[in-house]
Amino acid sequence: MKLPIYIYGHPVLREVGQDITADYEGLSTLIEDMWETMYFSDGIGLAAPQIGRAIRLFVIDADPMAETFPECKGLKQTFINARIVESSEETLAENEGCLSIPGINEKVTRPATITIEYLDAHFLPHRETYTGFAARVIQHEYDHIEGVLFIDKIATIRKQLIKGKLANMQKGKVSAHYRVVTAPQKRK
Questions:
Q1: Whole-prediction pTM
Q2: What is the pLDDT of residues 137-175, one digit of tens each?
Q3: Residue 90 annotated as catalytic
Q4: Three-class SS of residue 108?
Q5: 123 close to 22: Cβ distance less than 8 angstroms
Q6: Which residues pair with 6 in a beta bridge?
Q7: Which terminus of the chain is less hemmed in, N or C, by CB atoms within 10 Å?
Q8: Pairing between strand 76-87 and 113-119?
Q9: Residue 19 burial (C-beta neighbours within 10 Å; 0-12, 13-18, 19+)
């Protein structure tokens, strides 16, 4: 099932996700729905907070980026209860966008290499190191389960330039080709 994407301003996007167990109700269906939603929305990653669940779960399929970024070849995985345990001092800057912040792309500087520990969809443990754009995609989705958005990491001047667009999103004025859930509006 294609789920709606929660948009900038919705409080769930700022919650730190909770760890889950293998008996989390409806987990396999939720993961399937997340894949379907991500592909329908033309994303390469989707975190549970983006569909309204404050849990430590995200899915990534960066393989379509492999022609430009070879390190993304074969990167298709479900990440449960992930923790980034090491980050390099070396950084890389690239443009990023987000399904929860449609129409905005900004340059973000992130560690070039990370090591992450996580459980896969079968709750098997993994510890893996990623570099380059693969590391970036994982860090972007990981930030979601930490209540962080990519715009939190951009230059102050760039934040000022997109302030109006973000304010409109918070007011529910947003355009996307997928279903969305906007922030609850205060009654006057």
A1: 0.96
A2: 999 999 999 999 999 999 999 999 999 999 999 999 999
A3: no
A4: strand
A5: yes
A6: 181
A7: C
A8: antiparallel
A9: middle
Q: One-letter amino acid identity for 8?
A: Y
What is the distance between the alpha carbons of residues 184 and 4, in angstroms, rounded to a whole number? 15
Which among 25, 86, 117, 141 is annotated as catalytic? 141
User: What are the residues whose beta carbons fall under 8 Å from the beta carbon of 90, sequence distance 6 or more?
Assistant: 111, 112, 113
Per-residue buried b or exposed e for 100-122, using 16+ beta carbons within 10 Å of the residue's own CB: bbbebebebebbbbbebebbebe
- 3-state SS string over 26-76? CHHHHHHHHHHHHHHCCCCEEEHHHHCCCECEEEEECHHHCCCCHHHCCCE
Q: Whole-angstrom Cα distance, residue 142 to residue 45?
A: 10
Length of the chain: 188
